[in-house]
Amino acid sequence: MFWSKKVKLEIRGMSCGHCEATVEEGLSTLTEVAKVKADHQLDQVTIRYKGECPSIEAVRSKVNELGFEAANSWA
Fold this sequence. Notes:
Layout: E1 6-12, H1 17-27, E2 33-39, E3 44-49, H2 56-65, E4 69-74
Antiparallel strand pairs: 1-3, 1-4, 2-3
């Protein structure tokens, strides 16, 4: 499946593959999110979405809920 719409966000606190999986699974539950790829070495997450871009507030809230810290704006 091909998604042309994507955004990147800096996330602090990920240190391993398990952290990546936690972020990917958590953000995948948000409306409009089609695919998530987290990278703890780059401290970022790439979110591919369908339709409207998920709000930065919703993403940051979910990231914080998962125990990590998200940047204030899209990268």
